[in-house]
Design a protein that fits this description.
The complex is a heterodimer of chains A (about 160) and B (about 110). Chain A contains 2 helices and 9 strands. By secondary structure, chain A is α+β, with helices and mostly antiparallel strands. With about 110 residues, chain B is an all-beta fold. Chain B has a single domain, classed as Immunoglobulin-like (Sandwich). Helices cover about 0% and strands about 50% of the residues of chain B. Chain B has no helices and 8 strands. Chain B is elongated and about 60 Å long. Classes of the chains: A alpha+beta (about 160), B mainly beta (about 110). Chains A and B meet through strand 6 and strand 7 of A and strand 5 and strand 6 of B.
Chain lengths: ~160, ~110
């Protein structure tokens, strides 16, 4: 009799445990990835506003060279050139590269100086999936210019991750 | 994995006022800390977070690297030549990694 009660209790406890674990599994499968696997274009824009200290962004002066289609999102070459004489009175203070649909929007931020001579950089970035890359440049007078470029990542290529 | 010596491609002599191109590349896995290896273990984060290049104490470029920078970070940038001196390249990363390299530039007339 007592053994029966014990087994019953054990079963109910096991059921409770298994229910709990399936609930956790369900959260892990459906709940978390939606919020953590990928940033949204809105998050990217908010992050860009944070990086440029809320200054108003104008289109122009920034030129991005990015392939329209890439086989390898793990390392995609990006060239950023900004129309600026890079003199002591007029230079690019910083430039920020942000991705709309990577796991985390930030890619890299660069601080330049008049000693750079030419406002141009080339680097390699991770692009998790087909998306838009935004580059914003902050001039020494505080004005912010930006440009967007779209890159399609071929199916099967990797990215962040 | 210990990172090897960085590769820096730049001219060793230049004229005053010239703008020179500097290419840098360093071997580094740039692990985000999100990836899982084949046996299901999370690969610990190991990233370079900062790069800076200065010339005789004056900063030319300063970069903050985030998760979107590809492994083996490559960076091409420019510098204006004002005098002969030493270019100082410095990478900083997680676990107090610091990689440091210097290249001398001479002036030819």
């Amino acid at each position: 009799m007592s053994i029966e009660i014990l087994t019953e209790r054990l079963i109910t406890r096991r059921q409770a445990v298994s229910f709990g674990s399936t609930a956790l599994l369900a959260i892990a499968l459906f709940g978390l990835p939606v919020t953590s696997a990928e940033a949204t274009p809105k998050q990217a824009k908010n992050r860009l506003s944070e990086l440029t200290k809320g200054a108003e962004r104008q289109k122009g002066r920034v030129h991005i060279t990015l392939p329209k289609l890439t086989q390898d999102g793990k390392r995609t070459r990006i060239k950023v050139a900004i129309d600026s004489p890079m003199t002591d009175d007029d230079f690019v203070r910083s430039l920020h590269i942000v991705a709309e649909r990577n796991t985390y929007p930030d890619i890299a931020s660069y601080e330049l100086s008049p000693l750079s001579g030419k406002a141009e950089i080339v680097t390699r970035i991770r692009i998790a999936k087909s998306q838009t890359i935004i580059v914003a440049a902050e001039m020494n007078d505080g004005s912010v210019y930006y440009a967007k470029a779209r890159c399609k990542v071929a199916r099967g290529a990797g990215g962040c991750g | 994995m210990k990172p090897d010596t960085p590769r820096i491609d730049m001219p060793t002599t230049a004229k005053i006022g010239e703008v020179i191109q500097i290419k840098t590349k360093i071997r580094h896995p740039m692990e985000t800390g999100w990836r899982k290896s084949n046996d299901g273990q999370t690969v610990p984060r190991n990233r370079l977070t900062q790069f800076s290049c200065s010339f005789e104490g004056e900063t030319i470029i300063n970069a903050q690297y985030d998760s979107g920078v590809a492994s083996d970070p490559y960076l091409l940038f420019y510098a204006k030549v004002t005098k002969a001196g030493l270019f100082d390249f410095r990478w900083e990363g997680d676990n107090n990694q610091v990689i440091h390299s210097q290249v001398a530039l001479n002036i030819h007339l």
